[in-house]
Every structure is written in C-alpha cells, then in structure tokens.
Amino acid sequence: MTKITMLIATGLMIAGLNSCHKDYCDYVEEAPILFQYEYVNYAWGYRHRGFLIDTDGKVLGFDRPKDWKFADSTGYLSKADLEFNLEYCDTICGQIDTDDARHYYMKLHSFDGSDIRDLGIYMADAGTGVLSGWVWNDKHKAYENILLRSNGDLNKVNNHKDTDAIVEWLKGIGEKSNRFWWFESN
User: Is residue 144 part of a domain?
Assistant: First the structure.
C-alpha cells in the first residue's frame, strides 16, 4: 500500500511540475490569432483595416469589418470574440512559416509587466497603426493584447528586449500585404 501511495504522490508531483503556474500559458495550438496589425483612423472618414496571423501561418486581411470586437479597456478579449474577428477577414494576404510564427509568439509570454513608453504625437489626423500579439491569460480566462508598437497619431513602444525583433518581423510581413500603413518616426 505504501508503494502505491508513493507512486501516486510521485505522479501527482510530476504532473504538478509540468502544469502551468503562470498567468501566461502556452496555448499556441488553441490561440485563434497570434499577431495582429490594425490601423484605425476617424479623421476625414472612418478607416479600419489590417491583418491577423493565425496558428496555421495565414496572414488574413480585413478592411472596415462590421461589428469588429475590440479589446476591453484592460486589453482583454475572449476566444469567441477573437474567432468572431477572424470571420471578418476578407482575403488571404500571405502565408508565413509556422515555425517562425511560433518562435516569435513564444517570446510574447515573457512580456508580462513590461513597460510601455509614450513617444509623443508625431502626426495629427493620420490615424494609428498598432502591431500586437494575443496571449492567453489564465487568471482572466481571456486573451490579452500585448502592445508591441503603435505608430501615427499615437506613438508607443513596448520596452521589452524582444520588441524590436518581433516588430521588424511583423513589418516585413505587413509590407507584403496590401493592408499595412507604417510611418517611420524616431
């Protein structure tokens, strides 16, 4: 009986060591959207366009989608709402290597608590483009939008050490799509 109890206790301990104890867990297979580029402009007429990158590496474009689901004021969105947004993608803008997507996506898990620096306003009425990622937050039971960089009317950058590498990778993808607008500011 003691051997059985020890085996069960050891098995539970090993299972506990392999479980997720952080708020951010590895849900890459279940995540409907890994990364997002979104441009919104309310001046001189409403514009809303961009692209999403899904787990299969598809770069899916959208242009003025009706009833788009935006993250709440704290940056969270349910899986159902992310899937809803996927339905509004109207074109495939490209295909990327899934290993590259997973490589950069896994870096997002270390962004918890990273600082966002406001770079000021460089433009007026130009709209804002935002590069970001979606990471599951187990505590909130929702996906959290991780801001990487915004550009245009509102200019912000995440101070995490991996931000520049992910932003450059996403900009390269965006430049091949017809749904990308980016202004280089210093």
Answer: yes
